[in-house]
Predict the 3D structure of the following.
Amino acid sequence: MKRDILPLSTPKAKIDDESKLAFGTEFTDRMFVMEFDRKKGWHSARIQPYGPFSLDPAATVLHYSQEIFEGLKAFRRSDGSIALFRPQDNISRFNRSATRMCMPEVDEKFFLDSLLELIRLESDWVPKSEGTSLYIRPTMIATEAFLGVRPADQYLCYIILSPVGAYYKGGIAPVKIWISDHYVRAAHGGTGEAKTGGNYAASLMAAKEAAENGYDQVLWLDAREKKYVEEVGSMNMIFLYDDKIVTSPLKGTVLDGITRRSVLHLLKDMGYKIEERALSVDEVMEGAGNGRLKEAFGTGTAVVISPVGSFCYKDKCVQLGNGEPGELTMKLYKELTDIQYGRQTDKHDWVVEL
Ligand SMILES: *Cc1c(COP(=O)(O)O)cnc(C)c1O
């Protein structure tokens, strides 16, 4: 498939002071777009000026949420070059999400090439300061104007870019986690392992209640027994329990995080035993109390690693250790960001240079 590059007339002004960059509030000059219909397949691929779409009010995505997305980052290295972290993994997950939501798959090579070309054109937008990056958001929506409930016949797929600030501005801060015994995120047979907007819409109420009560994040329990911890907001959870690494298995209700996968790989390299098993909320609460649970952290592209300071469940709060980020947690944060920013050799072939 060919890809057009449309002219850009007026570039936007960039934020000079990179310490003022937030998350997902600013977007670059250009975006990648392609369209799909059943007869033609994917067509009209182009890189065009960033701007609003015109959508029919009956577009399926607006009514029944046929939508998927991805999130990855481009990093500016000290020699000025730009690198991506495991982008093929994001694109293959995009296609798995597409299949689950009855949406068309993209050609993985064409999509990666388009992504790289877009970033090359927008390379001035990749910030330079410590901890900053260019956040990349591939998205697909159903655009057919039709109110019946069935997979749409028309789709729009696009990639937008957003320069983002360092997540941790005043050093890594541990979070206070609320374990929800009422709301659930994903049930067996549901859409928990797809990166689809509806999962997030359904999670907002619990996140709002958690925030109102002074908690930073919601830790979801399994929907069937409300007994086993699954994941947090947009992060997978990893625990250091009795000197072993414990994390929820990927059985359909937990998102297959690329940061999770990378951290587990690093931990295996360090010689840790990894148990992908159901961990009960009782084990978490008791373990934090009696010291068997030594460290816990969330993993996700936006934060990389987010240490847990305390867990709260049914009116009881327990602090983990002294409430400070654990030693292993900090070591993993450093290892992973060193690979991403090119401060350490990439032994695993995770980095794709532009
Ligand atoms: C995106 C996401 C994650 C983290 O995945 P990464 O690939 O590490 O960014 C975890 N949980 C949910 C629900 C997500 O949507």
In short: The mean pLDDT is 96. Helices lie at 60-64, 87-100, 108-121, 197-212, 258-269, 281-290, 327-340. The first strand starts at residue 4 and ends at 5. The domain at 175-340 is CATH 3.20.10.10 (D-amino Acid Aminotransferase; Chain A, domain 2).
